[in-house]
Amino acid sequence: MALADRINSLSRRLPTWPVYILVAAWVAWLFWLGLSGQLGPEPINTLERKYGLFALQLLVAGLAVTPLRTWTGVNLIRFRRAIGVSAFFVVLAHFSVWALLDVQRLGAIWADIVKRPYVTVGFLSFLLLIPLAMTSNTWSVRRLGPRWRQLHKLTYPALLLGGLHFWWLTKGWQWEPLLYLGGIVALLSLRIRLGARRRPTRARTV
């Protein structure tokens, strides 16, 4: 049996709920490290950045599921919803630490959103993810029908804005945010190409 077949066989036997548990446990563990003074001299800033990076990693992982299936045969589609919802949970934690623990005042929060470009794009990414999280359930899929798939293409601009947010807030030309941004652009290009390739096939079968 090929490696991809073995992975697929194993993934079919695994439930998706551990994804939520593991992500929530990691978020809680990082928060505990901050409370106990184990995140360095600036625990709020460190916690904020760790949450943000983890959220970006989860969003990239969710976007990579379809190209991974296409190019390697590894099918993790059934985990994509859990990854996406967990990513939003971590984004919400990232935003909450920034708003409630770092900035703290409503006026200052709005001022940051308006005046700082990296905050602006990060906030826009957060807003785009809200309807996706709210409709990541079976009832919404059935209720919206084909519109559900169109709505969830908001993942693309949300992830791109998230990558820009990470790159913009980093001082200087550091390789890590550029690597993430380049990977996001590459994955988005693959997804768009795969979508364009499937549309003519569907048109011929109608």
UniProtKB/TrEMBL annotation:
<keyword id="KW-0813">Transport</keyword>
<keyword id="KW-0288">FMN</keyword>
<keyword id="KW-0812">Transmembrane</keyword>
<dbReference type="InterPro" id="IPR022837">
    <property type="entry name" value="MsrQ-like"/>
</dbReference>
<dbReference type="InterPro" id="IPR013130">
    <property type="entry name" value="Fe3_Rdtase_TM_dom"/>
</dbReference>
<keyword id="KW-0349">Heme</keyword>
<feature type="transmembrane region" description="Helical">
    <location>
        <begin position="51"/>
        <end position="70"/>
    </location>
</feature>
<protein>
    <recommendedName>
        <fullName>Protein-methionine-sulfoxide reductase heme-binding subunit MsrQ</fullName>
    </recommendedName>
</protein>
<dbReference type="Pfam" id="PF01794">
    <property type="entry name" value="Ferric_reduct"/>
</dbReference>
<feature type="transmembrane region" description="Helical">
    <location>
        <begin position="151"/>
        <end position="169"/>
    </location>
</feature>
<comment type="similarity">
    <text>Belongs to the MsrQ family.</text>
</comment>
<keyword id="KW-0285">Flavoprotein</keyword>
<dbReference type="GO" id="GO:0046872">
    <property type="term" value="F:metal ion binding"/>
</dbReference>
<comment type="function">
    <text>Part of the MsrPQ system that repairs oxidized periplasmic proteins containing methionine sulfoxide residues (Met-O), using respiratory chain electrons. Thus protects these proteins from oxidative-stress damage caused by reactive species of oxygen and chlorine generated by the host defense mechanisms. MsrPQ is essential for the maintenance of envelope integrity under bleach stress, rescuing a wide series of structurally unrelated periplasmic proteins from methionine oxidation.</text>
</comment>
<keyword id="KW-0408">Iron</keyword>
<keyword id="KW-1003">Cell membrane</keyword>
<dbReference type="GO" id="GO:0016679">
    <property type="term" value="F:oxidoreductase activity, acting on diphenols and related substances as donors"/>
</dbReference>
<keyword id="KW-0479">Metal-binding</keyword>
<dbReference type="GO" id="GO:0009055">
    <property type="term" value="F:electron transfer activity"/>
</dbReference>
<keyword id="KW-1133">Transmembrane helix</keyword>
<feature type="domain" description="Ferric oxidoreductase">
    <location>
        <begin position="53"/>
        <end position="162"/>
    </location>
</feature>
<dbReference type="GO" id="GO:0020037">
    <property type="term" value="F:heme binding"/>
</dbReference>
<dbReference type="GO" id="GO:0010181">
    <property type="term" value="F:FMN binding"/>
</dbReference>
<feature type="transmembrane region" description="Helical">
    <location>
        <begin position="175"/>
        <end position="194"/>
    </location>
</feature>
<feature type="transmembrane region" description="Helical">
    <location>
        <begin position="121"/>
        <end position="139"/>
    </location>
</feature>
<dbReference type="GO" id="GO:0005886">
    <property type="term" value="C:plasma membrane"/>
</dbReference>
<keyword id="KW-0249">Electron transport</keyword>
<dbReference type="GO" id="GO:0030091">
    <property type="term" value="P:protein repair"/>
</dbReference>
<feature type="transmembrane region" description="Helical">
    <location>
        <begin position="20"/>
        <end position="39"/>
    </location>
</feature>
<feature type="transmembrane region" description="Helical">
    <location>
        <begin position="82"/>
        <end position="101"/>
    </location>
</feature>
<keyword id="KW-0472">Membrane</keyword>
<comment type="subunit">
    <text>Heterodimer of a catalytic subunit (MsrP) and a heme-binding subunit (MsrQ).</text>
</comment>
